[in-house]
Amino acid sequence: MGGTCCASEGALAQFAKSHLDERFGIGTSDALQRIVELLVQAELKIQGRRMTSHPFIVNLGMMLRQSEMEKRYTKPITSGVAFQEAKILRKAARYARYAAAAYHNDKKSISSYVGNLRTEDIRHVTDNTLVMTPGYFVAIDTEFDDIVLTIRGAGRAAEALADAVSPKEPLLGGSAHASLLEGARQVVDSSVKLIMRLSQEFPRKSIAIVGHSLGAGIASLVTILLSSEGAPFAKLMATGKVKCFAFAPPPVFEPLWALPAWVHGCTYSFVYNMDCVPRTCMGTVSKLYMALKHVDGLPLAPERRLAYISGECQIDYVLPDYRELPANLGSAAGSLFVVGTILALYREDGQVRCEAVAPHMMDRLLLHPDMVHDHAVCCFEEAFEDLRLQVSDAEGCVLS
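Predicted structure:
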């Protein structure tokens, strides 16, 4: 009996996955399966045991389908305040290419991808076979006169979500994402001597620490480790000569008030549109679980649920995509946050917008058809290029 039940549940889940990929693009089901694995952890934390009746991927598929049909989120949640620091946006546009180039493994490929970067100015590239240490490269950027440390991340949302939730480790009076903090320490140990030597060789140059996805989370923590009081670049930080450009970073720290002000002042965390990775931690997954629990309890047979996902029927129920946790469960779930100045890039009325985001605006997952594909590093490259084009003829052009 139990084997038949499991087989049936597996068939339901597989049916849902095939329709999710067909409707929302290849890779959607893989990323949502990672979220399912996190939902299982959340259920065990909150309930102590499995409580739901239907496969999580089926319930998620229903919720995503209704969100799409309602056009529930036409744009990300932001402050509405435009970010207009020209130099930061120009640097971010260039360093998004650095972040993408980190997925290449040799100097020639990196140089060609970034553009206007000589191979001799790339001073180090880690061997991609050293899988225990995050990949990175160090280069001298002549356009902005920076020493640039660029850390490789996860190319796909599904890969990033696999490491989105981790135990926490104490750091600066708060707690950090333990596995990314370990990666940051490895990068610091491996790269600090070279960066210090280059800083002494080129004393007028600033330092930029760059990354995408998990590499962006590591970059945020590397910045803290290298620039805290007594650390190698504390004096450079004090003079404003250390900056971090994090593209699609996962949440890495809590509580934010425990961080020194300079961390927020030097770190620019860019989030593209509905990207799920910067919005995923145990706290946000737990809010999603509370909504999913409600959907699971609705009087809908499995066949009706699948038919709704595939568009063969309609339902009269409202399917929420988040519910706040009861006060007594908040501490059990626990949240981490993206650090620094958080900046949302999105498109509206044919224009690219760049707006400031308060941390609490990131404290839930937005179920949206683009939540998986918006994690790709190419989204940032394209957005910055379009932003450059749309302002190139305007007075006070910000990107050219």
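Summary: The CA atoms of residues 34 and 161 lie 6 Å apart.
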